[in-house]
Amino acid sequence: MSAGGSTKAILAALFANAGIAVAKFVGFLVTGSSSMLAESVHSVADTSNQGLLLLGQKTSQRAATKMHPFGYGRDRYFYSFIVALMLFTLGSAFALYEGIHKLSHPEPLKSAIVAVIILVVAIGLECYSFYTAIVESKKVKGDATWWGFIRQSRTPELPVVLLEDAGALFGLVLALFGVGMTVLTGDPVWDAIGTICIGVLLGIIAIILIIEMKSLLIGEGATASESETIEASLVSGKIERVIHIRTQYVGPDELLIAAKIGFAADLTLAEIAQAIDQAEARIRAAVPAARLIYLEPDLYRAPV
User: Fold this and answer.
1) Opening angle at CA 79, ends 214 and 246, nearest 5
2) Which domains are seen in the chain, by residue range?
């Protein structure tokens, strides 16, 4: 898919998180709430993450070189992996540390109503960012479930932004819960509990992203439906069968296909070359991401 939709979602998240981060830090300085501090660091991390995703999109567009003959498409996977690591370290680990610290040494909140107002405004901004990510993801999600989309998408930015925004939204709700319960009960322990819950939530999201981005970095093949389409496009005309086939995404929009295909023994070299050209055209028409196609002609020998 084009990077346009993911870029729009990234920019929406970038501007929303930057504004939210400033507001949260002001709220922390006024109230001393550990939930607000954890959410402030979370928003700063998210803002940095959006910058890294944009950087990955930019560097992935570099032309192929002799050292990197398949181009730099995997830069988008690399920077998405870094984003997952940052979410784990700056978001989850810091929130858990701060929450445990405040649980051991609780401190009363000051001007808690300020924190409540900031959190409510931040929830509104985060809803806008999350809605934008959902709208852009629906354009490419197809019939897959949301979990299936996150697991199967070869475009890393949208799943990252979706999970980040979901984590930010639920994190704000948890922070609001912690601050609200502290105001209602007068017990600052609730603020620390909210902070710990934020850390656990971000840790779960970060681990999911780390696993998915690691898989993309190592190299994933075509989806099951794409593989069926590719094989159906190959076996036509003078091509009798696919002997074996390998696929791999070398970038979100660039699929490598290598296959050995079986021909009849009485074909001329010209007929084989023409059949291969036609097969490549069929594949590219059916699977636009198939940019690199290598087909090896052979005679099929039935196993003895």
Assistant:
1) 45
2) 4-218 (1.20.1510.10), 224-299 (3.30.70.1350)
